Amino acid sequence: MSERVAVRKTYKLFIGGKFPRSESGRSYLVQSSNVSLASRKDARDAVVAARAAVKGWAGATAYNRGQILYRAAEMLEGRREQFVALGVPGDEVDAAVDRWVWYAGWADKLSQVYGGANPVAGPYFNLSAPEPTGVVAVVAPERPALLGLVSVIAPAIVTGNTVVVAASPTEPLAAVTLAEVLATSDLPGGVVNILTGRITETAPTLAAHMDVNAIDLTGVTDADLAADLEVKAAENLKRVLRPAPADHDWSADPGVTRMTTLLETKTVWHPKGV
Amino acid sequence: MTATTTSARSELSELGRSETALRTFLHGLPGVDQVGAEQRAAQLGTRSIKTTAKAQAIDLAIRMVDLTTLEGADTPGKVRALAAKALRPDPADPSCPHVGAVCVYPAMVPHVAEVLRGSGVHLASVATAFPSGQAPLEIKLADTRAAVAAGADEIDMVINRGAFLAGRYKEVYDEIVATKEAAGDAHLKVILETGELATYDNVRRASWLAMLAGGDFIKTSTGKVPVAATPPVTLVMLEAVRDFRAATGRQVGVKPAGGIKNTKDAIKYLVMVNETVGTDWLDPDWFRFGASSLLNDLLMQRTKLTTGTYSGPDYFTLD
Question: By the CB < 8 Å criterion, does B73 face chain A?
Fold first, then answer.
């Protein structure tokens, strides 16, 4: 009897809840696996998918979003061995799950903490509520492969944004595996879209795209590229998160800046009457 | 050649006189190879159109759009806004061409007419108890006359599918002839509603029937039934207008309508026109797209080509 031939995996993109190859047909080798090399058009398609998902995701109740993110954390926990096999340290997987759960908890708390009633001089109830900004483009940090990625995706989506993530070019396997986690955790298709490949190819398209509302440059290491991306982002006044310093400690308490930067405050003046 | 064409022409013009002759002719048309038509349409959809060719295709497609709103909720204000968009689809770019026509219900025609007057953009009105066509003939003709009187220079009529499917071809023929007469100088587009015709053979027969009866355009759909324009149906209709011109010398236009939502689809149709009937039909006078959301995607793609950055729906009108 002949020996069984193993089924080798091709690591594909994650766009609109599906796993397509790059429309360009290109791929590159990472840890002897084929990984899709995303093109500008893939970035465009991902933005279209992310935009289509905004209404449903931002419109879902905060409680519901939190529950879905908890479910993603459960799935992530269940895939621990798979991440370890890809070379992600066990401690990092645990930290990533904890980070995900921490952010999930913020889903139904953020608007109490960062919204509220404002005292105004006039017969009005004046209320401010934080709302998601829309489609967020994210350049994920190159390392740590999983914790870094979770630390940029979770804060963006917990408030109701949808994201297009340019994954780390050197560590894309963990990113695609995280996509498989998200695809099996009730997260609506298009809320998270992951592109693997060259940052220099996808990030400028995303930064210039007029239908992207914010860009997170965390993973951009080249100062010139970062400046160029900020200039492009200024065209339609995107919100910008600046690159993380090289010595950033990803295991430290992340704070809330990543969530609050990607919000718009809506203030309502309501006449009080007698 | 000329002699045969002339005799064929007179022979074809006699067909409308009797039910039997019409039936014999329509059922004598060769059957459509369903798999072949679908495969051919799919194959033509794989062509890659890039850079300058794409820019040209987009501008041509914009000029071919029949910007349409056919809703119960249409108001004079809404159709005026649509007409203004038809004149200048991209206000930020004066080099952007205007669309082919605006297509509205008869009651809205006067409001559109005052905006479009003298602009070169045609004004189409649906008529004949659109979209079902299930009304007495006098009402359909009155509908048509009212639309023309109000300023429409193109009439989109629906055929009587009930009669067609029941095999009463003469009745359908006579209705088209009568509507053509009522429309006077206005161009007559005949809507076959292919989604209700069930087979490609029926699409071919209805196309010929509409052309024999004097239609200036054949149009796929009303946009009001689930199945609208599809590439294979349009292919069958293009073949019909090609064969009709070969037989009679008269050129008839084609208008796929409904379900064409983005630039990629529109370019696929243009490729199909070029490959099936040739460049004679690559003109807004002979090929139109019945669509509303298509225009915004065309404009976004046009902006991408001219500026290099992808645009978003925030920068175009909602309609």
Answer: no
pLDDT, one tens digit per residue, over B126-178 is: 999 999 989 999 999 999 999 999 999 999 999 999 999 999 999 999 999 99
- C-alpha to C-alpha distance for B76 and B47, rounded to whole angstroms: 41
The pLDDT tens digits for A84-141 are 999 999 999 999 999 999 999 999 999 999 999 999 999 999 999 999 999 999 999 9
pLDDT of residue B1: 43
**pLDDT of A274:** 65
CB contact under 8 Å between A44 and B310, yes or no, is yes
Q: Which domain holds residue A97?
A: 11-271
* Total tally of structural domains belonging to chain A: 1
Distance CA A173, CA A205 (A): 23
In a domain, A2, yes or no: no
Interchain contact B51–A (C-beta under 8 A): no
Query: Can you tell me whether residue A165 is helix, strand or coil?
Result: strand
CATH topology of domain B2-307: TIM Barrel (3.20.20)
Domain at A220, CATH number: 3.40.605.10
Residue A124 in any domain: the answer is yes
* Active-site residue, B255 included: yes
In a domain, A192, yes or no: yes
Q: What is the C-alpha to C-alpha distance for residues A20 and A36, in angstroms, rounded to an integer?
A: 9
| Chain A interface, Cβ < 8 Å to B | 44, 47, 51, 205, 208-212, 232, 235
Q: With an 8 Å Cβ cutoff, is B308 touching chain A?
A: yes
How far is it, in rounded angstroms, from Cα B162 to Cα B297? Answer: 36
Catalytic residue among B85, B255, B265, B268: B255
**Chain B interface disruption, residue of A23, A206, A210, most B CBs within 10 A:** A210
- Three-state SS at A249: coil
Torsion of CA B227, B232, B234, B238, to 10 degrees: -160
- Structural domain includes residue A1: no
Q: Where are the domains of chain B?
A: 2-307
Q: Work out the burial of residue B140: count CB atoms within 10 Å of its CB; fewer than 13 is exposed, 13-18 middle, 19 or more buried.
A: buried
Residues B25-42: pLDDT tens digits? 999 999 999 999 999 999
pLDDT single digits (tens) A37-69: 999 999 999 999 999 999 999 999 999 999 999
DSSP codes joined into one string, A10-40:
EE--BBTTB-PPPTT--EEEETTEEEE---H
Residues forming beta bridges with residue A192, ordered by sequence position:
A163
pLDDT band of A8, cuts 50, 70, 90? confident
Tokens 């409308």 correspond to B16
Residues of A in contact with B309 (CB under 8 A): 208-210, 232, 235
